[in-house]
């Protein structure tokens, strides 16, 4: 946990970091994926300009940047996730590069505890890209830059992997859509999740089904969703949120997006999701959550945190011009609902389908344990 | 094209690459936060634990501003240090913050702007904000729009950001709000009027042109002024050019919008989303803090993007507790909703905190109760203290068991002893320690402000007696005095104590009597539009009543409201004139200075005139030797400076004379009145006609004044002097006219005829009018046109600045002259009459009118019985139809006598002359009454006129042609004389006219007369016959105002006249109807108007009527407005009155709107409707008042009517309509035209 003075980070990238920080603070970057993408781009810049002579310095730099970004907007979890992911990739690359023979990660003593801690080695683990063994020389006093010079191409590749994953996440999530949606089903969705949108559209190529979209007050993102779906030729109904429960008995499946997926299998999703999920539970309707892996967040206890719901301004609920009410009425306008793991049946990610109970394992695989606290 | 456009785009891009600059006025230039701002500038006061400056920076950074100039005045070192230490000055923030220390002499935002200009720091469009802004608005969007507008229109200099809110809103300052008049399409700000909460402003005046130029107008009183302006580069230079711009809104915006010279546009950007507000006072401090805690400023909320960089945890109920476990909350303490607690603060057991903001490192002891309290950093609140609705500064120690009531402000570092008791609104600050370490620092920054504070503090300390009870033992505090300061009146209206109370934390102002009622009113009224309309309707009645009760022609209402402002203004004018006198400025320069002064102070033109006349009169030295020396002295002064009177923004000689009279009556220069008047006359500043017009006004006779006062006596004395002068005029005229008769070849015939007519009239008069003779004798003085004969031409010149009106003017002048003649003749021999007509004829420069007259005169010669007036009028009519016209003339003659003020009784005499009318004296009286009633009633109620018109219309189909022929309605009674006559001789009008009304009527009549003249002029033109109305010289030739009512009757009468009996009946009906109509509500009038519009009558008739009606309506409104500013005084004004008595105004607005909407297609109709409604609502015609504006307007009228009858629209052109909106009731009105 060596903290690196901010000043050591290159000034050029410092500016871009600050820009992103203020954008995040000011909510000029919203949405998990956008925030993640911006973060990757900033990190790439930071890494490309960073000066380091060993891996620890590099990690410290990235962590300090990540900490700033996370502090700027702790509720945009994908920022932290992305930083973790990048760190994870960098370490992997470093390990493969430096010790091609003895990969530290694979050198595991097979004990039960280790098995539980580290999970199964992932099949898709990025294959070591560096065919040509790079000669790494850390802390070379003669040429302090030799290490970074040698490692940087690999690092950039690793970061590019993260970026690619983010850019293809929608396609990857929805590639199995037709397996989840069957003909003549009635699907209920809520809000406007681009993951869900592409998922449904993808399924529409193979199946004909009906989507009921709840309009999702007070943001009414459902309107956009319904418009987009019907434009894609899907038979779509837009219903008020209040009728979700009433129509639930006829719904075959609830498909919703997520803002962040927590390690316990719960998730933050747009306001109204809890209502839909609870109604679905009552009717034993399956609740399917579509989300990219970058939304997996190694946090557990957020449902105790009232503020995590990210309350927005009341203006969409109560007009500011209602002078006499403004003074006497307290309006709460949360962005998100916390939906517990017991209400979710399956997460469909770009890395396969998982039950809520296995989310923690995915998280363990995706991120290094040291990075849970940036 | 494509390449071009692309290049253009690139340009745009480069444009946008320009650094966006912002200027923060970090000084508040007022003392609302004292004593919290003792020792630090307001912009460093914490709001939710971040300084206002931080909030402002954050708001600007959000908008992508790259370069910020902070203008600081008080405690500049502190501001600089704060900026230096803040996160904003870190290079990575990309913000360039430049503190600019302005001089101590910068007392207003205007001064600061001038400073900005002289420093030349502004290179492009910039954002101007106050240093107390809290906003999450994307200002860059506003900037983009602004630049777009600039691309097409370089005159767009500013975009103000305003936020929609209700009329009642905690964040909206009642003490300092404004009415915005916006173009609904472009959101251009057409008019700005600031509104003070106390005295509660109820009337907003909107220039009439606005409604003409913009089809859809929004009048909004529901906007929060966010204090964000996107300005163009030239804005600072405008401040530089106008040294008197102080406040950005009240002076600059208002000045720019009302200026005739600048031709600049200002737009508004109405925020639909986002939040922006200023912390301008303690009340808004409270409101903004609560808005922040309620997350209206999202994402600028404590737990997200706290400008101070603190991080807070957001808990259920909008509780914000600093993160990091530095806050120690006792297990038994209660932290209520909407509370923020800073880092390091300790809250002890059983303490209760509700809706409060606690700073960092504070200590809240056991059993403390805090409600709506703002506690700054490091303060300790002792056990068991109770604090409500107060602001407690930094490092304050509050002793055990203290109680601080609502509205208290506790300055930094104060120590309150045990059991201190602060009453409501107490302000305490730390006693100044001599040579104290901290103090010395502050002294280092010391500026005048501080010195001012010091002196204030000393004053305060002098008052400290038994306050130890209040502040407890061992306190270092001093208690500031409450209540208004002695020099309260010296302050700007906004800054006065009672108004400030509206901006005070915790003050519900329940004791501000009437105002509170108003608030209650609009609380309830704001519910629905329907309600508001109805309330306005009720208000309409109340307004009418209020108008009746008001007696002083010179805008008494405004004087009440703005007495202080006026005195200040008078003083300023005096000063500037003294300077001009002393330094020998040119008249033009002095005039420019006065104009700017007037714009800055927003004062009526009349006030300026008063001030100027006063200054000039006082400038004249009183010579003991008297006689020639005195005269020379006067001539010198008048010659040098007299021209100034007309250069200050309007020519209205009648008003000038009146002003002169009243001033002389009040000053020691009383004996000089005659001489000064003569001197003015010599210098062509005042024409003969003006003097006549003035002479017959009620004001000139002092009738409006209380009998017996010295003022009244003096006024009367002046009037007598004027009478003498007019006598002289008459004598001269008689002699000169004879000579002149020969001059105009074309007119020769006419004068003869006139003479004949006059003779005949004389005969008639002698027969029937004993009274008339007497009156004439009285008036005899007035009719001194003699002098005018030479100068009459001059009068038209002055009047006819607009060339178009020349004809009208001529006719008018003729009319007036004729009228005079008419008066004169009875007494004087035929020669005198002859002379009078002669003068009249020569007077019209344009040959058309005289020629017509001559023709008419010839035709009418036969008519023996007709008076001159009637004859002339008849003449006009005669051209077309001789016989009928004669009859008509007869009928007219009847009304004319009535109208002629001198002989109210005379009319009966005249009636005999007119065969048709004659039947019975009663009938004559009726007619008289009707005619008079028309005049008077018109004055009183335009409705009557309307009704008359309607009636006329009904019979009308046949009459249309006749009407056209008869263009000159019976000449309105000479205003001045008419009044007395009306009062005395008019029993019939009496029913309508109340005693109070009579006075008003007199005034009104004057106006009407003027109007009538114009109307006549127009009519004559339309008819192509130049009728010389008998109207006495009420109005100068320049001011031609149509007399609608008269016309209507006459027109009707003629129609009916063809059937002799019908006339009588018609007249009687008219009278009755008039009375009825008078009683009728405005609505009826409106309906009537509408009916008229819709009526099938030939175009010619309705138009004249409409014109008249509109004009009438307009004029009456103006007086009611009372506020009529100099320009507007004459110009017709639509008054939309807000709550109170002004109600009629409000109804007007509605009426206008409704009418306009209905008539959208036809502009004419709209105008008519407006006029009608206006007239209906407000019976009072203007006082003689303004010359220029009205004259222009009238002239245009005539022209238009002349050229195209259909376009009557123009009537409003120059006039300003005052739309007073019920501010409270109508948060937003949309007027579609």
UniProtKB/TrEMBL annotation, chain A:
One of its GO terms (cellular component) is eukaryotic translation initiation factor 2B complex. Its main location: cytoplasm. Gene3D superfamilies: Translation initiation factor eif-2b, domain 2. Keywords: Cytoplasm, Initiation factor, Protein biosynthesis. One of its GO terms (molecular function) is translation initiation factor activity. Belongs to the eIF-2B alpha/beta/delta subunits family. Component of the translation initiation factor 2B (eIF2B) complex which is a heterodecamer of two sets of five different subunits: alpha, beta, gamma, delta and epsilon. Subunits alpha, beta and delta comprise a regulatory subcomplex and subunits epsilon and gamma comprise a catalytic subcomplex. Within the complex, the hexameric regulatory complex resides at the center, with the two heterodimeric catalytic subcomplexes bound on opposite sides. This is Translation initiation factor eIF2B subunit beta. It comes from Cristinia sonorae.
Automatic annotation (TrEMBL), chain B:
Residues 429-458, 506-549, 729-1233 are annotated as: Disordered. It is found in: Cytoplasm, Cytosol. It comes from the Eukaryota. Residues 825-841, 893-924, 1017-1040, 1132-1147, 1185-1195 have a biased composition (Low complexity). Residues 966-978 have a biased composition (Pro residues). Residues 1203-1217 have a biased composition (Basic and acidic residues). Residues 436-458, 513-530, 729-742, 756-779, 806-821, 857-890, 930-955, 996-1013, 1056-1093, 1156-1168 have a biased composition (Acidic residues). The keyword DNA-binding does not apply. GO terms for molecular function: guanyl-nucleotide exchange factor activity; translation initiation factor activity; translation initiation factor binding. Keywords: Cytoplasm. Residues 563-739 form the W2 domain. Residues 531-549 have a biased composition (Polar residues). Gene3D superfamilies: 1.25.40.180, Hexapeptide repeat proteins, Spore Coat Polysaccharide Biosynthesis Protein SpsA, Chain A. The keyword Cytoplasm applies. One of its GO terms (cellular component) is eukaryotic translation initiation factor 2B complex. Component of the translation initiation factor 2B (eIF2B) complex which is a heterodecamer of two sets of five different subunits: alpha, beta, gamma, delta and epsilon. Subunits alpha, beta and delta comprise a regulatory subcomplex and subunits epsilon and gamma comprise a catalytic subcomplex. Within the complex, the hexameric regulatory complex resides at the center, with the two heterodimeric catalytic subcomplexes bound on opposite sides. Belongs to the eIF-2B gamma/epsilon subunits family. This is Translation initiation factor eIF2B subunit epsilon. It comes from Cristinia sonorae.
């Amino acid at each position: 946990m060596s903290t690196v003075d901010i000043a050591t980070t290159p000034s050029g990238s410092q500016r871009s970091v600050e820009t992103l920080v203020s954008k995040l603070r000011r909510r000029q970057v919203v949405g998990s994926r956008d925030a993640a993408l911006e973060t990757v781009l900033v990190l790439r810049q930071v890494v490309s300009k960073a000066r380091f002579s060993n891996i620890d310095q590099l990690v410290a730099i990235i962590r300090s940047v990540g900490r700033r970004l996370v502090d700027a907007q702790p509720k945009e979890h994908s920022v932290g996730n992305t930083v973790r992911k990048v760190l994870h990739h960098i370490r992997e690359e470093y390990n493969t590069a430096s010790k091609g023979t003895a990969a530290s990660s694979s050198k595991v003593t097979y004990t039960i505890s280790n098995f539980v801690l580290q999970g199964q080695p992932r099949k898709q683990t990025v294959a070591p890209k560096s065919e040509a063994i790079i000669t790494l020389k850390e802390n070379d006093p003669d040429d302090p830059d030799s290490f970074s010079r040698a490692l940087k191409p690999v690092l950039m590749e690793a970061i590019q992997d993260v970026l690619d994953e983010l850019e293809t996440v929608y396609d990857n999530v929805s590639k199995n859509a037709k397996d989840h949606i069957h003909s003549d089903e009635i699907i209920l969705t809520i809000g406007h999740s681009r993951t869900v949108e592409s998922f449904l559209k993808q399924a529409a190529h193979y199946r004909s089904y009906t989507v009921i979209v709840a309009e999702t007050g007070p943001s009414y993102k459902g309107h956009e969703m319904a418009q987009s779906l019907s434009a894609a030729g899907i038979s779509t109904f837009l219903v008020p949120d209040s009728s979700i429960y009433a129509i639930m008995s006829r719904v075959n499946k609830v498909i919703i997006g997520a803002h962040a997926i927590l390690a316990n299998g719960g998730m933050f999703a747009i306001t109204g999701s809890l209502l839909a999920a609870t109604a679905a539970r009552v009717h034993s309707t399956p609740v399917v959550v579509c989300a990219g892996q970058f939304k997996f967040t190694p946090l557990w206890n957020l449902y105790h945190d009232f503020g995590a719901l990210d309350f927005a301004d009341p203006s969409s609920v109560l007009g500011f011009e209602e002078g006499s009410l403004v003074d006497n009425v307290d309006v709460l306008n949360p962005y998100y609902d916390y939906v517990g793991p017991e209400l979710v049946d399956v997460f469909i990610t770009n890395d396969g389908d998982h039950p809520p109970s296995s989310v923690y394992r995915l998280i363990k695989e995706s991120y290094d344990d040291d990075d849970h606290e940036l | 094209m494509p390449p071009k456009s692309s290049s253009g785009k690139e340009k745009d891009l480069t444009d946008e690459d320009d650094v966006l600059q912002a200027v923060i006025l970090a000084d508040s230039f007022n003392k609302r936060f004292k004593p919290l701002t003792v020792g630090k500038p307001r912009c460093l006061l914490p709001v939710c634990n971040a300084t206002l400056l931080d909030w402002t920076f954050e708001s600007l950074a959000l908008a992508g501003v790259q370069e910020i100039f902070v203008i600081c005045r008080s405690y500049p070192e502190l501001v600089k240090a704060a900026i230096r230490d803040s996160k904003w000055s870190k290079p990575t923030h990309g913000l360039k913050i430049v503190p600019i220390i302005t001089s101590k002499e910068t007392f207003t935002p205007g001064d600061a702007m001038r400073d900005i200009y002289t420093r030349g720091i502004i290179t492009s469009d910039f954002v101007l904000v106050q240093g107390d802004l809290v906003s999450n608005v994307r200002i860059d969007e506003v900037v983009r729009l602004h630049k777009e507008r600039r691309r097409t229109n370089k005159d767009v200099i500013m975009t103000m950001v305003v936020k929609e809110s209700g009329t009642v809103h905690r964040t909206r300052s009642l003490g300092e709000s404004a009415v915005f008049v916006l173009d609904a399409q472009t959101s251009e700000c057409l008019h700005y009027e600031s509104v003070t909460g106390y005295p509660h402003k109820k009337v907003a005046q909107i220039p009439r042109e606005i409604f003409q130029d913009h089809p859809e107008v929004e009048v909004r009183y529901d906007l929060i002024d966010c204090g964000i302006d996107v300005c163009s580069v030239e804005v600072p230079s405008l401040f530089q050019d106008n040294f008197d711009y102080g406040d950005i809104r009240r002076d600059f915006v208002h000045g720019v919008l009302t200026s005739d010279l600048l031709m600049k546009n200002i737009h508004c950007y109405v925020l639909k989303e986002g939040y922006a507000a200023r912390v301008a006072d303690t009340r808004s401090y409270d409101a903004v803090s609560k808005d922040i805690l309620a997350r209206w400023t999202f994402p600028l909320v404590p737990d997200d993007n706290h400008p101070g960089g603190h991080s807070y945890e957001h808990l259920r109920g909008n509780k914000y507790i600093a993160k990091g476990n530095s806050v120690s909350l006792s297990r038994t303490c209660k932290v209520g909703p909407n509370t923020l607690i800073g880092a390091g603060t300790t809250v002890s057991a059983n303490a209760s905190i509700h809706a409060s903001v606690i700073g960092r490192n504070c200590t809240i002891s056991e059993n403390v109760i805090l409600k709506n309290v703002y506690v700054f950093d490091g303060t300790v609140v002792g056990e068991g203290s109770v604090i409500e609705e107060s602001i407690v500064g930094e490092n304050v120690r509050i002793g055990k068991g203290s109680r601080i009531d609502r509205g208290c402000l506790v300055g930094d570092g104060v120590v309150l002893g045990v059991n201190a008791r602060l009453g409501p609104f107490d302000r305490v600050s730390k006693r100044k320690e001599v040579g104290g370490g901290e103090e010395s620092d502050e002294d280092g920054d010391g500026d005048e402000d501080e010195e001012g504070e010091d002196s204030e503090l000393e004053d305060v300390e002098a008052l400290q007696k038994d306050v130890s009870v209040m502040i407890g033992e061992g306190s270092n505090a001093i208690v500031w005095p409450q209540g208004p300061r002695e020099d309260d009146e010296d302050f700007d209206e906004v800054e006065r104590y009672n108004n400030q109370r509206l901006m005070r934390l915790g003050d519900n102002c329940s004791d501000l009597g009437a105002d509170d009622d108003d608030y209650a009113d609009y609380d309830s009224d704001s519910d629905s539009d329907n309600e508001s309309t109805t309330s306005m309707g009720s208000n309409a009645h109340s307004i009418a009543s209020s108008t009746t009760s008001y007696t002083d022609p010179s805008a008494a209402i405004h004087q009440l409201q703005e007495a202080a402002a006026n005195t200040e203004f008078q003083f300023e004018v005096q000063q500037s004139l003294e300077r001009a006198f002393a330094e020998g400025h040119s008249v033009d320069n002095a005039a420019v200075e006065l104009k700017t002064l007037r714009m800055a102070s927003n004062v009526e033109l009349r006030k300026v005139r008063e001030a100027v006349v006063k200054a000039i009169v006082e400038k004249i030295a009183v010579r003991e030797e008297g006689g020639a020396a005195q005269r020379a002295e006067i001539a010198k002064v008048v010659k040098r400076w007299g021209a100034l009177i007309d250069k200050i923004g309007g020519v209205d000689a009648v008003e000038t004379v009146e002003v002169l009279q009243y001033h002389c009556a009040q000053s020691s220069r009383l004996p000089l009145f005659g001489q000064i008047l003569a001197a003015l006359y010599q210098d062509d500043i005042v024409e003969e006609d003006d003097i006549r017009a003035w002479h017959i006004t009620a004001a000139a006779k002092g009738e409006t004044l209380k009998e017996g006062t010295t003022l009244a006596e003096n006024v009367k004395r002046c009037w007598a002097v004027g009478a003498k002068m007019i006598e002289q005029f008459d004598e001269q005229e008689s002699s000169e006219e004879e000579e002149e008769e020969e001059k105009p070849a074309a007119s020769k015939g006419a004068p003869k005829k006139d003479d004949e007519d006059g003779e005949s009239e004389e005969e008639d008069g002698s027969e029937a009018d004993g009274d008339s003779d007497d009156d004439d004798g009285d008036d005899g003085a007035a009719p001194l046109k003699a002098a005018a004969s030479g100068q009459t031409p001059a009068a038209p010149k002055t009047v006819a600045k607009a060339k178009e009106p020349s004809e009208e003017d001529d006719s008018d002048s003729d009319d007036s002259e004729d009228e005079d003649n008419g008066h004169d003749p009875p007494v004087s021999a035929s020669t005198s009459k002859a002379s009078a007509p002669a003068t009249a004829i020569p007077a019209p420069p344009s040959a058309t009118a005289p020629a017509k007259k001559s023709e008419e005169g010839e035709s009418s010669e036969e008519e023996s019985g007709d008076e001159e007036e009637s004859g002339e009028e008849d003449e006009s009519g005669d051209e077309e139809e001789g016989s009928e016209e004669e009859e008509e003339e007869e009928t007219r003659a009847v009304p004319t006598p009535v109208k002629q003020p001198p002989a109210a009784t005379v009319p009966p005499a005249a009636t005999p002359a007119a065969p048709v009318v004659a039947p019975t004296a009663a009938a004559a009286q009726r007619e008289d009454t009707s005619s008079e009633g028309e005049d008077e009633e018109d004055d009183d109620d335009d409705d009557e006129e309307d009704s008359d018109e309607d009636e006329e219309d009904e019979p009308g189909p046949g009459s249309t042609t006749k009407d056209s022929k008869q263009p000159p309605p019976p000449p309105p009674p000479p205003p001045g004389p008419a009044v007395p006559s009306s009062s005395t001789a008019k029993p019939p009008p009496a029913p309508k006219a109340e005693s109070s009304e009579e006075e008003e009527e007199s005034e009104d009549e004057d106006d009407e007369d003027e109007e009538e003249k114009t109307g006549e002029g127009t009519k004559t033109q339309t008819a192509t016959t130049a009728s010389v109305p008998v109207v006495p010289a009420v109005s100068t030739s320049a001011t031609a105002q149509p007399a609608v009512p008269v016309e209507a009757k006459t027109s009707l009468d003629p129609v009916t006249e063809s059937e002799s009996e019908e006339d009588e009946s018609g007249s009687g009906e008219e009278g009755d109807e008039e009375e009825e109509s008078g009683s009728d509500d405005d609505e009826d009038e409106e309906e009537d108007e509408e009916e008229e519009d819709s009526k099938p009558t030939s175009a010619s008739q309705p138009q004249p009527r409409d014109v008249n009606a509109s004009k009438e309506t307009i004029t009456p409104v103006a007086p009611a407005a009372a506020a009529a500013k100099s320009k507007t005084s004459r110009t017709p004004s639509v008054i939309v009155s807000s709550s109170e008595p002004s109600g009629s105004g409000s109804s007007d607005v509605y009426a206008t709107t409704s009418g306009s909407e209905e008539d959208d297609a036809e502009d004419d109709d709209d105008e008519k409707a407006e006029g009608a409604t206006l007239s209906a609502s407000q019976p009072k015609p203007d006082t003689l008042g303004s010359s220029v504006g009205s004259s222009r307007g009238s002239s245009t009228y005539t022209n238009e009517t002349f050229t195209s009858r259909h376009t009557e629209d123009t009537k409003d052109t120059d006039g300003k309509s005052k739309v007073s909106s019920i501010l409270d009731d109508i948060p937003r009105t949309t007027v579609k035209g």
